Amino acid sequence: MLDDEVLAVVLAIVVVASVFAFSQIVLSDRIVDPFAALGLLGTEMRIGDYPSAIVVNESFRLYLFVVNHEGRTMYYVIYAKLGNKSTVINESVPADVPVLAAYEVVLPSGGNLTIPVELSVSEPGTNVRLIFELWFINESTLQPQYHGRWVQLWLNVTAPPSP
After folding, report:
1. Does one domain contain both 2 and 16?
2. Which of 1, 50, 106, 163 sits a CA distance of 20 to 30 A from 32?
3. Contact in structure between 55 and 160 (CB atoms under 8 Å)
């Protein structure tokens, strides 16, 4: 038969293994580093086929790709804005320029969505900065709050040809 010391060691190994296995089951759905992502896709829904020159008031299509890995359902708002080289934007400061368009989406945890975006620019310009910012609805205030995620596309906007 087994002596008491061997039995105690085997029992200790079983207890430790059981606690480890149980913790893996409990923590398997927990997101350690929650994050959201915002991507910009070109006219063919791919990275890299972006327009660089457009004509005033002529619509063009892009696609936004939004990913939610925040561990809960999120209500996102994506603002399209027009800026220029001097427009300040970073992870803590949204661009202080007028909103061109807004797109709203509710995504479950682990969800993603590709959103078609149809835009036009009303004035000509060189190095026009088309900015898309990711915001979320704050559950406490029910107001949009800047998420710190943004993407941009540089455009040259030309006047339409003269008839």
Report:
1. yes
2. 106
3. yes
Closest to 132 measured CA to CA, from 18, 19, 37, 24: 37
Determine phi and psi for 39, rounding to 5 degrees: -125, 155
| Token pair in block for residue 21 | 């296995």
d(CA 43, CA 64) in angstroms, rounded, equals 11
Shared domain for 125 and 154, answered yes or no, is yes
Q: Is the CB of residue 60 less than 8 Å from the CB of residue 119?
A: yes
Q: Which helix (H) or strand (E) holds 6?
A: helix 4-27
> For residue range 102-116, what is the model confidence (pLDDT) as tens digits?
999 999 999 999 999
- pLDDT tens digits for range 117-138: 999 999 999 999 999 999 999 9
- DSSP H/E element including 24: helix 4-27
Question: Do 61 and 18 share a domain, yes or no?
Answer: no
> Looking at the structure, do residues 17 and 45 belong to the same domain, yes or no?
no
The structure's pTM equals: 0.79
Domain of residue 64, residue span: 35-158
Residue 163 lies in a domain: no
Residue 126 lies in a domain: yes
Measured CA distances, 55 to 58, 59, 80, 139, 161 (Å) = 5, 8, 18, 40, 9
